[in-house]
Write a structure and sequence with these properties.
By secondary structure, this protein is α/β, with parallel strands linked by helices. It folds into 2 domains: 291 residues, 4-Layer Sandwich (Purple Acid Phosphatase, chain A, domain 2); 170 residues, 5'-Nucleotidase, C-terminal domain (5'-nucleotidase,  domain 2), CATH 3.90.780.10. The longest helix is centred in the middle third of the chain and has 17 residues. The protein is globular and about 75 Å long. The chain starts with 13 loop residues before the first strand and ends with a helix.
Length: 501
């Protein structure tokens, strides 16, 4: 941290729209009662923003030494971070869909971890809707930080869904600076979460939302404006061009799991990677007399070398124990089971993906990822993990019919959503032949997208494939549970039906 001349006593206050607020309601701040002692010549204040996004429930880390607890320890040593210091800790959204330690508990564990870390606000990502509106509302109620989105509106009346715990913005006072924090959500949400969960909402254009809300935040008393947004780097750079006149100090990104820092039109652009594997930071020197940024230092760092924070580590370990115990839970019953790589197993995995991700047309997964039989009798979570032991995630691609037929021509994969008749591939949903020039939404696993099993063409065909961060096992688990099978009503008939669909 850069030391300041004179004595500065920082305080933090938060003002939020009332529970029944619409986007146009004015936010009234209570008078600040904390006194600040500064030398007469010193009007410069410092504030550091620490930024993560696309955490996706990876509190236990993608690898050893890169957990949420390690990141907290790194912040304390490298950034001198303290929740009560001159910091804002922000998330760009997509907080909880991922591994079982978070997904199985619908994000409850992730909220507890982020509460302990001291997050101040989070943009709403598309995957915040994955478990339905009731779960989103519950997570917002448990959270000690607000969920923000200025561009999610009810279709019925154009208001922000504050009843679900989503607010367009908040005001926070940090080191004598009144900071307005405005959230944004990707306009791709209707096609990147279950559409059933978001039918009530419109997702406004980013610039339109900011031009509406920024004046409200200014009128409410904001001196500095930052925008955590669930938006990819390219879209963020375009937005920085479009809203250069609004005086925004920082635009944070998300959705594409990128790690970068840059500056466009005097607006700092940050994105912190994914899965707590890294973070972005920006330290501003701010003149409170003239309400302007004097200088800024920004960059990115990897989550390595940090000593695990004991409090956060204890929370993660407790939830890991609960997740491990859940693996012994019975989720179904089969009289016959499924043989490894059998047609029944192939159909189970690929059709379950399409069931859980109904905006997709086709699913393809490599046979090498199926490592065990699904034994007869009780089906447990551990059985599914045995069949699909790798920590893969689902990637959404957009391929032409010609490209898709090339991929379907390989013999090392299971496919769902299509069938072959008279040497031609047809969509199961419509019975129509694949059109070589039309585009189709295709689900694959990230191992294949990285070129595994000779699928290198996938990334060539669509270099901007969307990492859904959905663990590839989760749709299979959810589908099995949805059948409500038992010894009296085994699941085998449903397995057979998948092969006929």
């Amino acid at each position: 941290m850069i030391s300041l001349i004179g004595l500065v006593v920082g305080c933090r206050e938060t003002a939020v729209p009332p529970p029944n607020a619409s986007p146009t309601d004015e936010i009234i701040l209570e008078p600040t009662v904390t006194e600040t002692v500064v030398s007469a010549e010193d009007s410069i204040r410092e504030i550091t923003i620490l930024y993560t996004n696309d955490e996706h429930g990876w509190m236990a880390g993608l690898q050893a030494g890169a957990t949420a607890a390690n990141l907290m320890g790194l912040w304390r040593t490298v950034e001198s971070y303290s929740p009560d210091g001159n910091f804002l800790l922000l998330s760009g959204g997509d907080m909880w869909t991922g591994p079982a330690i978070s997904t199985w508990f619908q994000g409850q564990s992730m909220v507890e971890v982020m509460n302990a870390m001291g997050y101040d606000a989070a943009a709403v990502g598309n995957h915040e809707f994955d478990f339905g509106l009731d779960a989103l509302q519950a997570r917002a109620a448990e959270s000690e930080f607000p969920f923000l989105s200025a561009n999610i509106r009810y279709k019925s009346d154009g208001t922000t869904p504050v009843d679900l715990g989503i607010r367009p913005y908040i005001l926070v006072t940090v080191n004598d600076i009144q900071v307005g924090i405005i959230g944004l959500t990707t306009t791709r949400t209707p096609t990147t979460t279950n559409p059933v969960n978001i039918t009530q909402f419109d997702f406004l254009d980013y610039e339109t939302a900011l031009r509406e809300v920024v004046p409200q935040v200014r009128e409410a008393g904001a001196e500095m404006i930052v925008v955590p947004a669930h938006i990819c780097q390219t879209s963020l750079e375009i937005l920085a061009q479009d809203v250069a006149d609004l005086g925004i100090a920082l635009l944070g990104g998300g959705h594409c799991n990128e790690l970068f820092s840059s500056e466009v039109n005097d607006i700092v652009l940050l994105e912190g990677g994914t899965a707590f594997a890294g973070y972005a930071y920006a330290t501003f020197q701010f003149d409170i007399e003239n309400d302007e940024v004097i200088s800024v230092d920004y960059g990115v760092r990897s989550n390595s070398g940090g000593m695990a924070d004991p409090e956060v580590e204890a929370i993660v370990m407790r939830w890991q124990e609960e997740a491990d115990a859940e693996l012994n839970r019975t989720i179904g019953y089969s009289e016959n089971g499924l043989l490894r790589r059998s047609q029944g197993m192939q159909s189970l995995i690929t059709e379950a993906w399409l069931w859980a991700y109904p905006t997709a047309d086709v699913a393809i997964t490599n046979l090498g990822g199926m490592r065990a039989d699904l034994p007869p009798g009780d089906i447990t979570l551990a059985d599914v993990v045995g069949v699909m032991p790798f920590e893969n995630v689902i990637v959404e691609l957009l391929l032409t019919g010609e490209q898709l037929e090339t991929m379907l021509g390989q013999d090392s994969a299971a496919v769902g959503g299509v069938y072959r008749e008279s040497f031609r591939w047809r969509l199961k949903a419509t019975s129509e032949e694949l059109d070589p020039d039309a585009f189709y939404t295709v689900l694959v696993n990230d191992f294949m997208y990285a070129g595994g099993d000779d699928y290198a063409l996938l990334a060539t065909y669509d270099p901007d494939g969307y990492n859904t961060a959905i663990n590839w096992r989760q749709p299979v688990i959810d589908w099995i549970m949805a059948q409500a099978s038992s010894p009296e009503a085994p699941i085998d008939a449903a397995f057979a039906a998948l092969m006929e669909e």
